[in-house]
Design a protein that fits this description.
By secondary structure, this protein is mainly α. The chain has helices at residues 2-17, 21-45, 48-68, 77-96, 100-123, 129-132, 135-138. Helix 3 (48-68) runs antiparallel to helix 4. The longest helix has 25 residues, at 21-45. 20% of the residues are buried.
Amino acid sequence: MIAGSAAREQYSRDAILSATPARLVTMLYDRLLLDLERAKEAQHAGDWATASELLLHAQAILAELMSSLKVEEWDGAGGLMALYDYAFATLVAANTHRQVERTCEGIAILEPLRQAWHEAAAALPAPEASATLPKGELGVA
Protein backbone atom coordinates (compact mmCIF):
# COMPACT_ATOMS: atom_id res chain seq x y z
CA MET A 1 0.00 0.00 0.00
CA ILE A 2 2.84 2.39 0.85
CA ALA A 3 4.55 1.70 -2.46
CA GLY A 4 1.32 2.49 -4.33
CA SER A 5 0.92 5.74 -2.41
CA ALA A 6 4.52 6.73 -3.11
CA ALA A 7 4.04 5.96 -6.80
CA ARG A 8 0.90 8.14 -6.90
CA GLU A 9 2.74 10.99 -5.20
CA GLN A 10 5.64 10.69 -7.67
CA TYR A 11 3.21 10.65 -10.60
CA SER A 12 1.49 13.79 -9.25
CA ARG A 13 4.83 15.55 -8.77
CA ASP A 14 5.92 14.63 -12.29
CA ALA A 15 2.60 15.84 -13.74
CA ILE A 16 3.01 19.20 -12.01
CA LEU A 17 6.66 19.61 -12.94
CA SER A 18 6.05 18.82 -16.60
CA ALA A 19 2.81 20.83 -16.95
CA THR A 20 2.58 23.89 -19.15
CA PRO A 21 1.66 27.19 -17.44
CA ALA A 22 -1.90 26.93 -18.81
CA ARG A 23 -2.22 23.38 -17.50
CA LEU A 24 -0.95 24.48 -14.07
CA VAL A 25 -3.70 27.10 -13.89
CA THR A 26 -6.37 24.57 -14.82
CA MET A 27 -4.97 22.14 -12.25
CA LEU A 28 -5.21 24.84 -9.57
CA TYR A 29 -8.80 25.62 -10.53
CA ASP A 30 -9.72 21.92 -10.54
CA ARG A 31 -8.34 21.44 -7.04
CA LEU A 32 -9.91 24.70 -5.84
CA LEU A 33 -13.38 23.59 -6.94
CA LEU A 34 -12.83 20.07 -5.60
CA ASP A 35 -11.94 21.55 -2.20
CA LEU A 36 -15.05 23.75 -2.26
CA GLU A 37 -17.37 20.88 -3.19
CA ARG A 38 -15.89 18.73 -0.43
CA ALA A 39 -16.12 21.63 2.04
CA LYS A 40 -19.79 22.08 1.15
CA GLU A 41 -20.43 18.39 1.82
CA ALA A 42 -18.56 18.59 5.14
CA GLN A 43 -20.55 21.68 6.14
CA HIS A 44 -23.82 19.91 5.36
CA ALA A 45 -22.65 16.99 7.51
CA GLY A 46 -21.65 19.32 10.36
CA ASP A 47 -18.00 18.28 10.07
CA TRP A 48 -16.64 21.77 10.70
CA ALA A 49 -13.02 20.72 11.18
CA THR A 50 -12.86 19.10 7.72
CA ALA A 51 -14.80 21.97 6.16
CA SER A 52 -12.40 24.47 7.68
CA GLU A 53 -9.33 22.58 6.46
CA LEU A 54 -10.73 22.41 2.93
CA LEU A 55 -11.78 26.06 2.91
CA LEU A 56 -8.33 27.10 4.13
CA HIS A 57 -6.73 25.07 1.33
CA ALA A 58 -9.10 26.66 -1.19
CA GLN A 59 -8.11 30.10 0.13
CA ALA A 60 -4.43 29.20 -0.28
CA ILE A 61 -5.04 28.21 -3.90
CA LEU A 62 -6.96 31.41 -4.53
CA ALA A 63 -4.12 33.39 -2.93
CA GLU A 64 -1.70 31.67 -5.34
CA LEU A 65 -3.88 32.59 -8.32
CA MET A 66 -4.02 36.17 -7.05
CA SER A 67 -0.26 36.42 -6.54
CA SER A 68 0.46 35.10 -10.03
CA LEU A 69 -1.92 37.53 -11.76
CA LYS A 70 0.09 40.25 -13.47
CA VAL A 71 -2.34 43.15 -13.24
CA GLU A 72 -0.10 45.52 -15.22
CA GLU A 73 0.13 43.21 -18.25
CA TRP A 74 -3.55 42.77 -19.10
CA ASP A 75 -6.40 45.27 -19.21
CA GLY A 76 -8.92 42.83 -17.74
CA ALA A 77 -6.67 41.77 -14.88
CA GLY A 78 -8.03 44.40 -12.50
CA GLY A 79 -11.53 43.01 -12.89
CA LEU A 80 -10.32 39.45 -12.39
CA MET A 81 -8.39 40.54 -9.29
CA ALA A 82 -11.52 42.19 -7.90
CA LEU A 83 -13.41 38.94 -8.48
CA TYR A 84 -10.65 36.98 -6.75
CA ASP A 85 -10.76 39.42 -3.81
CA TYR A 86 -14.51 39.01 -3.47
CA ALA A 87 -14.31 35.21 -3.75
CA PHE A 88 -11.54 35.13 -1.14
CA ALA A 89 -13.59 37.21 1.30
CA THR A 90 -16.58 34.94 0.62
CA LEU A 91 -14.55 31.83 1.47
CA VAL A 92 -13.22 33.43 4.65
CA ALA A 93 -16.79 34.23 5.70
CA ALA A 94 -17.93 30.71 4.78
CA ASN A 95 -15.28 29.34 7.10
CA THR A 96 -15.44 31.76 10.02
CA HIS A 97 -19.25 31.93 10.14
CA ARG A 98 -19.82 28.30 9.10
CA GLN A 99 -22.07 29.40 6.25
CA VAL A 100 -22.62 26.79 3.58
CA GLU A 101 -24.44 29.45 1.53
CA ARG A 102 -21.18 31.38 1.23
CA THR A 103 -19.34 28.23 0.15
CA CYS A 104 -22.01 27.76 -2.54
CA GLU A 105 -21.56 31.40 -3.55
CA GLY A 106 -17.82 30.83 -3.91
CA ILE A 107 -18.49 27.82 -6.13
CA ALA A 108 -20.91 29.86 -8.24
CA ILE A 109 -18.29 32.58 -8.72
CA LEU A 110 -15.32 30.33 -9.44
CA GLU A 111 -16.82 27.49 -11.52
CA PRO A 112 -17.36 29.67 -14.63
CA LEU A 113 -13.75 30.86 -14.33
CA ARG A 114 -12.56 27.25 -14.12
CA GLN A 115 -14.51 26.42 -17.27
CA ALA A 116 -13.15 29.48 -19.08
CA TRP A 117 -9.55 28.58 -18.21
CA HIS A 118 -10.08 25.03 -19.44
CA GLU A 119 -11.51 26.34 -22.72
CA ALA A 120 -8.62 28.78 -23.11
CA ALA A 121 -6.04 26.09 -22.38
CA ALA A 122 -7.67 23.72 -24.87
CA ALA A 123 -7.51 26.41 -27.56
CA LEU A 124 -3.73 26.74 -27.23
CA PRO A 125 -1.54 24.77 -29.63
CA ALA A 126 -0.09 21.61 -28.11
CA PRO A 127 3.51 22.05 -26.95
CA GLU A 128 6.24 20.07 -28.63
CA ALA A 129 7.26 16.90 -26.79
CA SER A 130 10.76 18.26 -26.23
CA ALA A 131 9.31 21.30 -24.45
CA THR A 132 7.43 19.24 -21.85
CA LEU A 133 9.49 16.08 -21.28
CA PRO A 134 12.74 15.95 -19.37
CA LYS A 135 15.72 15.39 -21.67
CA GLY A 136 16.39 11.89 -20.33
CA GLU A 137 12.93 10.75 -21.46
CA LEU A 138 13.63 11.83 -25.04
CA GLY A 139 16.79 9.81 -25.21
CA VAL A 140 18.93 12.95 -25.41
CA ALA A 141 21.51 13.92 -22.85
